[in-house]
Amino acid sequence: MTPTPTPTLAPTHSPTTPAAPHAHPFAGSGLLILRLVLGLTMAAHGSQKLFGWFGGGGISGTGQFFTMSGYPAGKTMAVVAGLSETLGGLGLAVGLLTPLAAAAVIGTMVNAIAVHGTGHFFAPAGIEYELLLTAAAAALALTGPGRFALDRYVPVLREHRPVFGALAVVLGVVLAGAVLLSRS
């Protein structure tokens, strides 16, 4: 008797063609959940700075904090941080201009980490929360917003391009560094 050959499954893609992005059936849903939680959290933080909502200081109180933290023009910095968090957060939540929205969040959170200091890691005196928000924004910039995003209707962003995500991460870090250099 001759042995029967064992059947093999053909790959769904060739070695030279990459697998379809987000091939896992729930990847789009997972990215949507991450975008919604991160985006709405950041938008809420921004509205604390801009409008005093959710127990925030508004522009005046946040501006005083920025001034005490060594930033020039505290009220202006409060508006910039508030707009970056609110618009960046809303952009992430709906998946619109995701790389730029992520860059806004990354830039603000790098500044928050610098102001908070790196003396401790765990809350309430540490940076774990800010670091997690920064990493989540960078992850979304690099992976893309997923299937359920408005970016699918923006021609240049319809298909995720990792280079846009990488440039957004660099942009967020560079702009954060420039703002940090303005501190006294």
Number of helices: 6
Average pLDDT, to the nearest integer? 88
Q: What is the succession of H and E elements? A: HHHHHH
Give the % helix: 55-70%
Distance between the termini: 86 Å
- Show unreliable segments: 9-19
Task: Characterize the structure shown.
The protein is mainly α. It has helices spanning 27-51, 58-68, 74-94, 98-116, 128-143, 162-181. Helix 1 (27-51) crosses helix 5 (128-143). Mean pLDDT is 88; it is low at 9-19.
What topology does this entry show?
Layout: H1 27-51, H2 58-68, H3 74-94, H4 98-116, H5 128-143, H6 162-181
Helix pairs in contact: 1-2, 1-3, 1-5, 2-3, 3-4, 4-5, 4-6, 5-6
Question: Concise description?
Answer:
61% of the residues lie in helices and 0% in strands. The protein has 184 residues and is mainly α.
Features:
184 residues, mainly alpha, 6 helices, 0% strand, elongated
